[in-house]
Amino acid sequence: MELRTLRAFVEVIRCGGFTEAGKTIFATQSTVSKMVKQLEEDVGVQLIDRSAPRPRPTEPGLLVYQRALDMLAMRDELLMQIGELHSFKRGVLRVGVPTVGGDTLFAPVIAEYRRRFPLIQINLIEHGSARLHELLRGGDLDVAGILLPVESDLEYRKVRREPVVVLTPEGAYPARKTSISLAELQDQSFLLFQQGFALNEMILAACRRQGFVPNVAMQSAQTRFIAKLVEARLGVAFMPRMVAMADRPDSVAILELDNPDIVWDMSLAWRRDGYLPKAATAFIDLVQEIVADQ
Fold it and tell me: 0.70 exceeded by the pTM?
């Protein structure tokens, strides 16, 4: 059982297809298919259900997928540890940045990190919290900005806590109104972020607690685009206050949300049992120095 074969299998599951996986590992579709077939022969069971529209793991396949993530992460950690024996001043820092609020919180940190450690290569990946957690667990990232609460397999430091506010079209509510509850919004169309964004589940779970399922009109990964959709009177949106204040057009109003359980609580997280490179430790300390508790 070779690590390259395990990597091919992992990418088929992650990417949802043999062709897509091949692009990730720079191999042809037929090569990836043969590698997965060889892995199935090695373990003696079928690992992928090929009858589904997109390849999905069987029950044994899911177990192999989870263990393969750990094995590949251990390989990457070993290579990083060997590299750090030479010099901390050189190396790679792999950072996951949240799509929502990542520019405001982490861009100043990354700029200062570059100034202090100019020979360290910074690899940035931008996603929602759910996907960033998966990449952390798989060893593809050293640290990532993830909303609290985090899973038990992660360590973290708190970075910023912001109330979630509502963006509404100008004039939709009386000018004297400064706050609104989810219950008052249940007849509105919701403009949410794409799947994989923890803020989405936070909003949807709060709506369920209020006894309704919202009408989700559209979803996007871009805060500015969502704000423009609100301006076009296509619905209401939810964002951390600092993001809303930076991205809203002038013709969009901001109302406080009368649901104290909906809070955007950003942390910087890393794997609890994983190897943390010195470059990542320096980044964590710099985030605490520049951003945390502002």
Answer: no
